[in-house]
Each structure stands twice: as structure tokens, then as C-alpha cells.
Amino acid sequence: MSAVSSGGERRTLAPFGRRRLRVADRREVGAYVVLEAADPDGPPPRPGQFYMLAAAERWGGGVDERPFLPRAFSVLRTHDRRLEFMLEDVGPGTERLAELGAGDGLWVLGPLGSGFTAPQDGRGALLCGGGVGTAPLAILQDQLRAAGSPAPALLGFRDLAHARGAELLDDPRVATDDGSAGHAGLVTELLAAALGEDPHVVVYACGPPPMLEAVRALCEERGVPAQLALESGMACGFGACFGCVVPLREGGYMRVCVDGPVVGAERLDTCLVAGAGH
Asked: Which of 55, 180, 219, 265 would you call most buried, defined as having the most Cβ atoms within 10 angstroms of its Cβ?
């Protein structure tokens, strides 16, 4: 298992070309699907890195089929040379991935992008996620706890069915938009309360752009460092198409797929330009 980087290099380099894996397991967790695939020839990813995924069969190649692009997914966790991914059926591409079962082929390219770095200056870690943004926080929590660091998690979902995704992390506090599970309201309300109790933390967040923007603004207001795993629609995953660029506070742009997806919140003016997610 790859350790959380303590600084400097935040990425594990992907092997050249995509790899064809076999789905080893598929399970449903509320509104989500978790796919597991053995990856004996791939390097262990760092928390926050992602993969480009595509079904090996019926991926838009036949008559009257839509030619789907691969989809970008953060790795949920890794163990025994296996990868897990969390996804939700929200359209034709994710529908095809969600229907894969044990034995089906899965193309993967990765690990890609830059991941999280461990807290510095004696700060603790506080995880904050929304929806499928839960995924990179699970592997991060695993590795921080393995290193002896507590990693409490705050997770937000729209309703009870989606809130089952919280089961993928240890002992999270949950918020739901409709109040059907946990706190009735936004996960950023839980975050504001937690920072009021202990601001000497680094916030690690992943979720839809409006949630990340609220996290960014709140942490800036409180003077709390934050690392944000941006969600963005990606066509290639390795910086060639410039389809996932976001503007930086110091000027210029970054490509989410190669310069991120994890970025220090202080570098951004807003997260709302990061796109529509997976």
C-alpha cells in the first residue's frame, strides 16, 4: 500500500498505455456501485489519484451505439494489488460501467494526477466529502490511520439511499439534504462547527464544485489550509486535450488531470469552474 506523501512528489506514475483488467467483484452500497478489479501489473496509487475507466466490451463501438469516452474515477481504496472504484449511474457512460459484473473486462489507465499530502506543522486531518467525492477520502483515511493519525470524516449526501455511501468510511458524521439521515442540511455546516472546535487541522475535501467552493471559502475565512480534489469532466486524463482547465489566483490555468486533481485551496479563486464531475 502506498503511503500518503509527506511533501514533494504527490504522484505515482502510470505505466504507459491502458491495461485490461477483470472485474473481481461488484457490490451495491445504497445508490452507488463499487467495482473491484485485480491490477497485478499496476503500481499502488496515492490517495487522491484517479483512473480513466471504460468497459472492455460494448463501449459504444457497434452499430447505433454511442462512442463513449472513458470516465475519470478516483480510486476508492487499494489492497492486495486490487483496486476499488465507487460510481453512480447518472448517464449512459456510468450506466455501462455500473452494469459490469464479476469476470467482465475493464480498461484502466492510471494512476493519474497528483494526490494528497500528509498534514504538516502538527496539524490533524479533517476529511469532508460529498456524494461520489467520498471515494478518495476512503483511501486517504485508510492510509492516515495506518500511519497512526486520526482522520475523522464529514460526509454529505442528498438522501438516505445515497447516505449509505458513508458505510465506505470508518465512523463518519453524515449530513443529508432532506434530513433522512444524520444532520439535516449541508455537510459544510458540520465542517463549520468542527473548525470552530478545532481549527488546527488540514481539511481534505472532494465533492461537487458548489460544495468545494463552500469549503474553500470557509477555510479561507478561518485561515485553515485545505487540499481540494477537484471534480471535472475529462476527455483524456493526461493533459493533451485541455478540456479540464481551471484558472488560478496567481494567473494562468491548471489542468485538473495532470496539475491536480488535488490542489491547495489557496491557489484558487473559485471551485465553481471545475466542471460537472464524473
From this structure: 219
Domain ranges for the chain: 19-112, 124-267
Question: What's the pLDDT tens digit per position in 183-204?
Answer: 999 999 999 999 999 999 999 9
Specify the pTM: 0.91
Write the CB contacts of 173 (distance below 8 Å, at least 6 apart in sequence).
Answer: 152, 153, 154, 155, 182, 183, 190
In this prediction, residues 116-126 reach a mean pLDDT of: 95
Tell me which amino acid residue 140 is.
Answer: L
Reported CATH class of domain 19-112 = mainly beta
Cell of 76: 476508492
Q: Give the Cα separation of 1 and 143 in Å (integer).
A: 8
Q: What share of the chain is helix, strand, coil (3-state, %, to 5)?
A: 25, 30, 45
Q: Using alpha carbons, select from 37, 212, 198, 80 the residue that is nearest to residue 137.
A: 212
Q: Distances in Å between the alpha carbon of 93 and those of 89, 98, 235?
A: 8, 9, 13
Per-residue pLDDT reduced to its tens digit, 51-65: 999 999 887 655 555
Residues 108, 51: contact at Cβ < 8 Å? yes
Q: Average pLDDT over the chain, rounded to whole?
A: 89
CATH code for the structural domain at 124-267: 3.40.50.80
Torsion of CA 158, 160, 165, 168, to 10 degrees: 140
Q: How far is CA 65 from the centre of its chain?
A: 29
